[in-house]
Every structure is written in C-alpha cells, then in structure tokens.
C-alpha cells in the first residue's frame, strides 16, 4: 500500500469521531470529503485573511466542509466558480445578485448551488481572467502543504486545467480547510501531481506553509484513462481549445 493510502486510512479512522454524515454517502470518505465539528471556526480563519478580503474571483471545491465558507462568500458578494461532483458536469458560477437575501445557506449546499448558480465553460472562465483565491477541502494535508484528496485526483485535475489556461500559478493563494485531526505533522514529498497549499485552516488555528517545492503545471494527459476524459466535459473542452481533440 502506498504512503498516501496509508495516511488516508489513518486519517479516516480519526475522522469518524468528528465528521458529519453526508446525506448520500454517509461516512464513506472515499466518496466525500465530509463536514466536521468546528468547520465554522475554520471558516472564520479563512475570511480573516487579507487575501480573502481582496479576492474578487475565486475557486472553491464542492466539499461538505466548505458549506459555511461558500455561505460567507455569497453573503460577502464574492464571485466564485465551484466544480460539480467529480467534475462530471463541469463548473458552476455564483455572482452577486444570483442568490436572494436569506437564501445564502441553501445556495451554499450542493443542491442549492444547482438551483441558483449557472454552468460556466472553461472558455468563459478564461475570458474572465485569473482566479485570485482558491479553497479546497482535503482528506489529509501535511504541515508542509502536501494535500491528499479522496484519491480520485479531482483537485489535481482542476489545477492542471487552470494552469494550462493561465488562470492560476505559483503565486495563487491556495487554502486547505480541514479538521485538526486531518493534519499530518510529518513532512512529505509531493508527487508530480500533488498540489501544495499555502495555508491550512482548522478549527483551532491558521497554519502558514513554507513552500519548498513548485506546484505542478498542466494536465498530465498520459496519466488519464480514456474513460476519465470521456466522463469529464471540461477535459474535452480543453482538448478542443488546445487543438488536440
């Protein structure tokens, strides 16, 4: 078993004590990054960041632990893009004015996002310009910023697409929101696709990462199965944009 799988298994064991069950996947952590006790406190650390205050166009993942942060972003009038589950239906856009006052929490849930947001293509995202802030959940994250997802590589894939289009780079602030039990105290060596984060927000603290390696760039097409490309419309769109379809 790889080290990343061992770490996930260890963290998932601890998560059972603090995770909030998902309505569809319960506590199946290989299919969902759960909400957890104290996620609102972790959100407070994020919204206190100067980078958050300055952000005008952000990207956020559909993880359950980010519901409260999505609610705050809607209430604060932030425009942001969120991926759909598994990226199977691409990306959704929320802009100021799309969510009526009082409906921010509903809109922050995945079903609510489907109701209030609208689909957005990679090409339209590219026309809008760079993301100036990114937030993701994680199964685990090391103190030196190596992030582990559920094991499917969705965030790595999104990062690859966005770097190919010049929407993010080494300077883009990336924040991981996790429970304290999801932090790995040992330093880890990132793989060629691991995204290094700059900040780790937990219920008890905001940890700033001293990055010692570069983030990956571009979609690693040689690592993708044909079925994954066929099941992910934005990958097909990127191939057309790059003239390789």
Give an account of the 3D structure.
- The structure is a single chain.
- The protein has one domain (3-242): NagB/RpiA/CoA transferase-like (Rossmann fold, 3-Layer(aba) Sandwich), CATH 3.40.50.
- It is an alpha/beta fold and 245 residues long.
- The termini are far apart.
- The strands form three sheets. The chain has an eight-stranded mixed sheet. Strands 9-8-11 form a three-stranded mixed sheet, with helices on one face. Strands 1-2 form a two-stranded antiparallel sheet.
- The longest helix is centred in the first third of the chain and has 13 residues, at 3-15.
- It has helices at residues 3-15, 39-47, 50-54, 67-75, 104-108, 110-116, 122-128, 154-164, 226-230, 233-242; strands at residues 19-20, 35-36, 57-60, 79-83, 91-94, 118-120, 133-136, 140-142, 147-148, 174-177, 183-184, 199-201, 206-208.
- The model has no long low-confidence stretch (mean pLDDT 93).
- It has ten helices and 13 strands.
Mean pLDDT: 93
Largest sheet: number of strands, sense, barrel closure: 8 strands, mixed
Percent helix: 25-40%
Q: Give the total of domains.
A: 1
Strand order, sheet with most strands = 6-5-4-3-7-10-12-13
Strand content: 15-25%
Tell me the distance between the termini: 35 Å
Q: Can you describe this structure in just a few lines?
A:
Helices cover 33% and strands 17% of the residues. The protein has 245 residues and is an alpha/beta fold.
